[in-house]
Hints:
CATH topology of the largest domain: Uridine Diphospho-n-acetylenolpyruvylglucosamine Reductase, domain 3
Number of domains: 3
Number of strands: 19
Order of helices and strands: EHEEEEEEHHEEEEEEEHEHEEEHE
Strand content: 25-35%
Bound molecules: flavin-adenine dinucleotide
Low-confidence stretches: none
Strand order of the largest sheet: 6-7-14-10-11
CATH class of the largest domain: Alpha Beta
Number of helices: 6
Radius of gyration: 18 Å
Distance between the termini: 22 Å
Mean pLDDT: 95
Helix content: 10-25%
Amino acid sequence: MKKRSIDFKKYSSIKIGPTLEVWIIEREDEDRKEFFIIGGANNLLISDNPPPLAMLSKKYSYIEHKDNKLFIGAATPGGVVHSFCKRYNIGGFEFLKSLPGTIGGMVKMNAGLKEYEIFNNLLAIKTKRGYIPKSEIDFGYRYTDIKDTVFEAVFEIKDTFSKDRVEMFQNLRKNQPKDPSAGSCFKNPKGDYAGRLIEAVGLRGFRVGGAAFSEKHANFLVNINNATFKDAFDLIRLAQKRVYENFGIKLEREIKVL
Ligand SMILES: Cc1cc2nc3c(=O)[nH]c(=O)nc-3n(C[C@H](O)[C@H](O)[C@H](O)COP(=O)(O)OP(=O)(O)OC[C@H]3O[C@@H](n4cnc5c(N)ncnc54)[C@H](O)[C@@H]3O)c2cc1C
């Protein structure tokens, strides 16, 4: 199998991490249990000692439109899917313009914005075990029980393209910081907001080394000045500790720490 050297200070959205050799998966039978599969690294915080990493080759970046379905390779960036849907007047994928990542990463995370989630139009995923229908996958808010690498996702087309929805999603992004981040740091606990809790324990804008909880949106852990893994991880633990001590709530990470 081939490998590719990746500098995670450049590749990951939070701009933290070492340079590592990453395995490139070119065939479904190359998927191995010990690999941690990465997509666009928009939701990852990578330490100096992560498990062996692998990613899909470019072969898995494609979109096929057949009957009323889209067959999308898991390495396809969401932005490419959005452009395709705009061109062919396909609705239900407008939020992908405002969401960084690959289709594989989004399916695994059930990524979305408000009530628009990638699982809404999903019919099936393809893994090394073949096609698995959505009915056999457990999923919820930013959660799925998918264990294997996703090679392709199949979606149903239910709607036509809506410019209004594109605009609505872009407006929702206005309160997000521009500094490098990995999106929301914690999942919102039931009936509350992680950002509100972080602010309530005095950590909005709080800094450790080069990392901080953003002034603009407290649930965004941002890299403001060459942050290290330790800076970011210390902040995560501090927020969890303070929120638990003050509110008895265990903040669950949305960011995957490797
Ligand atoms: C500025 C910013 C804003 C964001 N806003 C949102 C938001 O509003 N809503 C939201 O849901 N998310 C948001 N995110 C997070 C991110 O967009 C999503 O988590 C996205 O799904 C990450 O995709 P990725 O390809 O980068 O995956 P990665 O970050 O590389 O990986 C994320 C997870 O997906 C798994 N994975 C990746 N590829 C595959 C595959 N082929 N098969 C199986 N598993 C795979 C990884 O193992 C990992 O567990 C934001 C991120 C940023 C940087």
